[in-house]
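Pair request: fold both.
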Amino acid sequence: MIVVATADFEVYHGVVNELRDRGTEFTTVELGAALPEQTAVVITDAAAAGEFEGHQTIVADPEDSRRAVDQALTAMRGSGGRIIVGVDPGRKPGIAVLDGEMVVAAFQVPIADAVDVIQQEVSDAPDPVVRIGDGARLQSSKLVNELEDVRVELVDETGTTPYLGTGGRGMEDVLAAVNIARLEGEVVDARDIEPTAGELQVIKDRSREQSRTNRAIDDVLARRVAAGELTIAEALAEHRTGDVNSDSSDGSDEQTGQERT
């Protein structure tokens, strides 16, 4: 059984709420009280960690109670499983975190936030691996190139998106990420792909949709977006700055020309 024993208000409520959300059996005791005979894991705070010698103890961070609960559940299962992160790339990648065969977390975030989410999930794990689907070439390349200090495998994602029945819409990317996590891939350090004309046009069309003046960015900026150097919003800002500088330059020339006459 998991036992929560802490005098830290934030730790207590964060851990208890996380355990309840997962439907996990647990109990709580006050510090100094005897632990139940069936105690398998104790979750506590840093100040009280030394009070539970002889029991497996997990120290919870009040800012990250989910991680403490993940560790407690892993200890209860005794899996000793490897942390594997599966990623179904795209504009909003699906991300699944597996501890052995158990899915312990899932996310779907904008591509700009995906690397930070993945790095957070593998930060304390021994020998983790990140498996990224080989579809959505530009987005998968961005993830491969920006992930650091972790083993990355590129996985053939053919057939990883499941059929979704009634009520399943919106879950496909996360479920595909689970399937990707369970497939071995090719270890990669970098992935350099030249964007096709069609991919550049898609980026330019998206920039036109987001532009207040219904203007698309040029090929140079579109390539920088494709490489992950800029977001579309940043590319539009540079595009506008270039227009302003160009207008200013033209005005000076015209004024100079008038002064010469």
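--- second member of the pair ---
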Amino acid sequence: MGSLLERATVNSKVQLAATAIASGAVVAGTIFGYQRLQRKERINQLKESIPSLLDDGEALRRLDSYGGATAADKEDLRNQLLAKRAQAGDYDDELILEQLARNRVFLTPEGLDKLRNAFVVIVGCGGVGSHCTAALARSGVSKIRLIDFDQVTLSSLNRHAVAALADVGTPKVLCLKRRLLAITPWVHFDLRQEKFWDQAADRLLEPWEKGQKPDYVVDAIDNIDTKVALLKYCHDHNIPVISSMGAGCKSDPTRIIVGDIGTSTDDGLSRSTRRRLKLLGVTKGIPTVYSTEKTGEGKAELLPLPEEEFQKGKVGDLGVLPDFRVRILPVLGTMPAVFGYTAANHVILSVTGYPLDYVPAKGREKMYEGLLAAVQGGEEKLLRYMTGGDPSITLGLKVPITTGDMAFLVEDIFKGRSAITGLTTRLTLMRWRRPAESILVRIGEGSDEQKSSNVKLSDLVCMTKEEGIRHDKEVLRGTKQPEEVYDAATVEKVESLLRDTAKYEKYR
């Protein structure tokens, strides 16, 4: 009898549990079904709120506020009207969050809020700048200022992020806004169709809505003068900026990295930018996107200006603006996109506070450390030679040189080659001339004594290790002058490079 009661009790509990589970499933299904209906309703409301295509030709003409643009089509007008409503707040925020859902999960809701409230300025809206802008808008940045004087051309279409044939002849800033409003209508765009230059910097980088200062600036300029002016201004005014170096003639996306301006290498734009900034006292502190890819046999190079172009008049008259480049840069259409997305990625991580952990210069730091060790060893050896071989004299000897100095000398001054033969392997740095006086600098006494070498960057020359052994034997610890060891052309070449070094050295 008791067994029957137990079984009945168990069966009753099972039935109750099953009933509860079934009820829970029905309730959950009802809730989820209701949420789906709500979501569909919001989407339907959004679609219904999209303005219908109009036949009013006057309305179509009103969309074109840039005299150089072609007449807008009906789709442009619809996007423009929807964007006007979205930017006024008439757009379901839940739908925006759904569109940004993947970013929100990655960056956290707090990080995405920072991004949505950020104000970013992109200077240069060509291949690099357009891809950067598109990525930032799609990722959630809601206030974007675009600065570019140029118009879309047919040759722009191989690398521009959003330009179509219909955009040829329209300002690049307007093209970006028109196309991106169809994707992210809530983004506020501030268009400045003009060339960036130092005297207009205060106005072009001024605060925008409610006095908000730029949270980040993207330098996507391919002209040296304006690029340097922008970076110098941002550096002096503590405005976060990232600079894109040359994508022209590059083909290997695996060699594109982010590093400090002091370590960027292997393209003329970054080299010239570094040199100009050094003369202005800016030697570090600006993140850059650059490629470590080297030129080689069969690779694209800067095309020379055809002779027939010279016959048309002064070279400066051939450009769209005075002193602006007129030669054609060979560009693989994929590479500016990689540069632009890399810059956008850096801005997104920086604004949201996401950890940045870049690999330093693809291992080149080790090369610079090795060169610094070679200079240290060379100074110790020379000091012992000059003091009669006393090993104690070099204990604790320091050299006033850093790995950044090594990078500058090798990459910027000597172009990664021996100044003697032009070879690129097994490089080292050592003094060019034997010092006439002691190289030892002493401060303090006893246990507080500090010993250092007086070596300067303008004393050092780049050569192969084999050439260095000969140079050390015949010049530094021998009796000869460089003029007795090398031909006149080599001596003049080295002396010229050392003079260049001396000009920049005071800005270290």
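Observation on the second member. The longest helix spans residues 2-49.
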